[in-house]
Structure formats: C-alpha cells, structure tokens
Amino acid sequence: MADTRAPTFAFPNKKRSTSTDDDDRAVAKKSTFSWTVDPATALANARHEFGEHGGVNMSIEASATFTVMEPETMRRMFAGELGPDRDFFIYSRHFNPTVLNLGRQMAALEGTEAAYCTASGMSAISSVLLQLCSSGGHVVASRSLYGGTHSLFMHFLPRACNITTTFVDIKDSEMVKNAMVQGKTKVLYVESMSNPTLAVANIPELSSLARDKGVTLVVDNTFAPMVLSPARLGADVVIHSISKFISGGADIIAGAVCGPAKLVNSMMDMHQGALMLLGPTMNPKVAFELSERIPHLGLRMKEHCKRALVFATRLKKLGMKVVYPGLEDHPDHELLKSIANEDYGYGGLMCIDMETEERANRLMNQLQNYAQFGFMAVSLGYYETLMSCSGSSTSSEMSEEEKALAGISPGLVRMSIGYIGTLEHKWAQLEKAITRLKNN
Ligand SMILES: *Cc1c(COP(=O)(O)O)cnc(C)c1O
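^ Those are the sequences you sent over. The predicted structure of the assembly is below.
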C-alpha cells in the first residue's frame, strides 16, 4: 500500500482565512480523534460547515478545478506539501471540499479517523480491496454477502487481478482462523448484518482473529448504520452503500470508505491511489444532498427498527416463519444486544420465510397489489416498505449450493420496513394480506 506524504489530508481542521497562499498558517495538527459512544453525539460534535455567505448550510463547491494565487503554490500542492487539510485543492477527482465535508460526517457517524465518499457502494468496496491487496493477494470473506460483492470476489477479482477469496462461515472461528494465511491474506471481509439472512457478525472476535494474523478487517455496515458501529468494535475499515438507509430516498447511488487517515489518503495518492486513479468520484451536488439527510438518519433508523420489531413480533404470533435479530429466537439476538448501540433497536430489515418461491411471490403480490403495504423492489432504507425474494433477485448470482450454504431459502422474502403512515395503519395492511393468503 502506498504511503502518502501528508497523513492528515483527509481530516482537515483548518480553514483558509487569508487571500494569499504563502503565509505562515499552522500545519494542521494530527487528528485529535476520539470516539464518543453514541453516533448521534459524534455527528452533533462534528465540525459544522457554514456556507460561503454565512448560510447555515455549507456551500456547494461545484468546481472541477481550483485556482491558486501564486505559481509556486501549484508545485507545492503536487509535491504534497499543501493539501485539503489547509484548504488547498487541485482537482475534484482528487479531493473536493463538499465531498470532503460529507466524508467528515461519515467519519463521525462511524467513529473513524477519516472517510471519503464514492459514486457507489460497489466502487467503495472494489477500491478498498484493490488498495489493500496486490496481485496474488488473498481475501477471506463471509459466505453470506451481498450478491454484487460475492460476484466481485468470486469472479471479477480472480480474473482481473489475480486476487483470490476463500469463503467461510464467519460463525466458525476455527474455519476463519485456518483460512487466513499470515503474510498472504490481506483482508477479512464481512457484513455487520448479512444480506439477506440478517446474521450478525461477531466483530470483536473477528477483529482479534484478524489482528493475530496481521489481516485488515473490513466490515460492510450498509444494513445497520447507527445500530452498529463496527470501528468501535474493532473493525479497521467500514464500508457503506450510502444508496440505502443513509440516503433514505431511493434516489441516489453512493458509497463511502471509513477508516484510518493513512488508508484514505493512500487511496487518494496521485500515483498509487485506487480512488484517484480508478476515479469513482462523487458529484459535489450529490454530496450536498446527502449531507442534509445524515442529521435525521438516527430518527429514521429508530422508526425503521421499531416497526420491524413490532411487525416481526406480531407476524410470529400469527404463526409465520420470521427472521429478525430483534426476536429472542434469532440465533444472534444476544450477540446483537451485546454489541449494538443503545436505543436504535435491531435493524430495519426482516425476512419472512415462505419456503417456496411460488408462495413468496403470492405473498408479495398480495402485499403490493391488494393491501398496498409496500413495493416489490430491491434495495432498502426507503420510507416505503420494499420487498424482494432474495434467492431469485439480489442473491441470484449465487449457485443453489452457495445459497444453501448461506442459508438463503428459495422462499425468503426480504423486507426493508418503511416508516410512512402510522404503524397501526401499515400493520392492518400487512395483516390483511396475510389473512387473504391463508384463506386462498
Ligand atoms: C447495495 C449494497 C451494496 C452495493 O452498493 P451500491 O451503492 O448499490 O453500489 C453493497 N453492500 C450491501 C450490503 C448492499 O446492500
């Protein structure tokens, strides 16, 4: 991994205040990063960026390129002597001030030293993997992963870069330990709450297994922002698909890499950086939109989680086969309780196992077209409930055998529970569809 010359780039804490480039501004201090337990508190304590004219919101820096006052400054910027930590910007595929501000919010949310945002969750994942692994590198990954990530590791990385992956059951610590080869394995990759089975990763344990072997633990926290804080539990790098809960609008594709400043800066290195050179850049206008949504992420998560718990509990009482880590009968209930942040609940997704795809489709049809409970669509984190049959949609890249190993039944209906309407109104719709299904 390339080292950068200025390790504080991704964590700027100094504003430009004069009109010339060459004064004696203090060099940004090494980050005084400290973890506040609750992510909402950390977000509230993060630097608030005001607009250019004193606006309560930051301005959008829509420029692709940036000018300097003196010619010498350009040389110093390219030499790495002047950077975003002192408000010197070169070009927006490198650092952009508005995207950097969103990154600052993401770092606060996840309790990492730094973060930078990307054009999609997949580009965040692929860039991190390419930054941490060289050709011939080895990854150990959970068997139960988002379909796109699974295909990236299974098919694309071995073909394009000779990076190979051993898939393991992350509940089996012996298997995880044995799969990691000291010196060869670079990354242990898991999802904090797995798609779609909602198994919870024992991050403290995985972190110590990885550390013993000198392996970097990368955790995709897309399913559980606010609920889980993987970095606090020992993860080295946290990835997000911002397209889901963090956006909340089902209108934007975006991602983030949260981790040590050293890693984030290395990804921006002019000669060796995966983000700088592959270029999955976030548009600053999109970064601005997203930055307006993060302050109410906590409120939204609480309502997603609250409704998921109520619906899961009531469905179970009706005799349905429900998978939800908030239920005591879920195998990871106690684990989740012991590692989750307080007061957010147990996640906004739940699954109903209808056993066959035919029954799963009948249920979704009733829910959407008869009861108006939600929409048949992939993705998650929207204010409306979204539902999909995982085996034939988001996990369809996996073979039957891989699906069976990952615990994905052909009739598993994944639901991302929305918060629109009142809880009782939505429950009445859900119950109506179930009743009709039973009577048909
Ligand atoms: C959606 C998703 C991704 C991919 O993110 P995009 O923003 O769609 O590129 C990765 N991981 C998980 C868990 C996801 O749900």
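Residues 120-122, 146, 148-149, 191, 195, 220, 222-223, 241, 243-244, 253, 255 surround pyridoxal-5'-phosphate (CB under 6 Å). Residues 1-19, 22-34 have pLDDT under 50 and may be disordered.

Shout if you want it in another format.
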